[in-house]
Amino acid sequence: MVWVLEFIMLKNRPPIVVILGHVDHGKTTLLDYLRKSNVAAREAGGITQHIKSFQLTTDNRQPITFIDTPGHAAFSQMRSRGSLLADIAILVVAGGDGVMPQTKESIQFIKSAGISFIVAITKSDLPGFNADHVKTQLTESDVIVEDLGGEVPAVSVSAKNGEGIADLLETIDLLAGMNPPQADPQGVLEAVVLESRLDNHKGPLAAVVVRSGQLITGKHLYMDKNIGKVRALLDWEGRQLASAGPSLPVEILGLSTVPPVGSIISDHPVTAESTSSSLSAPLPTALNPLLNIVLKTDVLGSLEALSSALPTGVNMVSSGTGDVTESDVLQAKASSARIYGFNVKTSSSVVKLASVEKVPLSLHRVIYELLEDIESRISPVVTEVVTGRAQILAEFKIDKERVAGCKCTEGEFNKSDSLQLLRGGQTLGSTRFKSLRSGKSSVSHIKTGAEFGVVFSPYLDFKPGDNIIAVK
After folding, report:
1. What is the Cα–Cα distance from 372 to 376, expressed in whole angstroms?
2. CB atoms within 10 A of CB 465
3. Max alpha carbon distance in the chain (Å)?
4. Tens digits of per-residue pLDDT, 1-46?
5. Domains along the chain?
6. What gap in Å lies between CA 84 and CA 110, rounded to an integer?
7. Neighbours of 41 (CB within 10 A)
8. Which of 232, 259, 211, 203 is nearest to 86 (CA)?
9. Containing H/E element for 101?
10. pTM
């Protein structure tokens, strides 16, 4: 089985750079220096709670699109999504703290995405900064920097005084120039949803980065259905745009629904598809819930990240975005649930009703505090780990066997993996690879971005649009 991809009018586009690393290692402060706005100080607890994106344009270099991703463990899905979208990653490691758990997690995201990356050793202005120690630590994660004979560039930087920033940007230019990212600006629109929310005044909003084609004011947009018409496009500084091309991050106004984070928006109803299920489908559990909760968050990305971070045994009776309402209290009462709110408000009447109905109500602005609250009420349970995700694009028949034509969207697959078939977020069954082929060759391993064909054993009744995941 062979797929032939035809690209028309491919042109170079600005590189998309994702910032990854451990919590409080200086990711947002670094980007704050670049965009000259005091973003870090406005984040609760000094920790970035949502993906941010902007494009840096200077007089003497090509534009660069940056994606800032949250640093807390609960937002690993957001970081993974950013790494899959990006062309280049910057792995931020604080020169005083060194390699930490989320540093190692970020390294795995980068390797799974198969993208070039730079190590930015931050906080060079602080006492205790030791770049050599960081470089040595990184070798334990199989990251060998150029100073030690490897191929990974490392730059010491300070977001306080600007030391090393010019070198960092020059290194990004160098990596982008070695393998220039390209897109068809006149092709079918593909825009990846990085964040979405329901605004009380503006309605559904979606922050996206255009992957190909043109996002144009007045055009109808699609996923699996028509989701509205672009009423306005706003860039990262709130300026209104008539259109947005490849690599440009913008916010869309005028949608009829809040699109799932990670989904693909198109201007063509035939090719449009939502990838939210392949990026964020939860693993089912047969265990009895130990804690019922009602969860309300400010935006969909927070809801998705929190949902994925909850320990097995927690049952979400209901969830959604927006402030806690009286109906939430009544639903929690009927289900013997606790209400948790993240970055949301509640009126005095709702607080009074919760008190009368004896419904526990906890509001938090920092993600790890909310999770610690939940974890203090339930013992953690080990869950299955998803190591690869793929979408079924087509169906073929070869030697009377049904073959699923797939594309790996995240992680990797090995021929020995245990698999689950998903449709609309629901598990249809478990299976394994009977046959795994790339092109005309049998293979034992598939990486992110690769297209491949599979025969399942035991047989499962799949169809295009379904997703498969590898679990351990």
Report:
1. 6
2. 14
3. 68
4. 444 444 446 789 999 998 888 877 788 788 888 877 445 545 555 5
5. 11-181 (3.40.50.300), 190-278 (2.40.30.10), 291-375 (3.40.50.10050), 386-471 (2.40.30.10)
6. 8
7. 10
8. 211
9. helix 101-113
10. 0.57
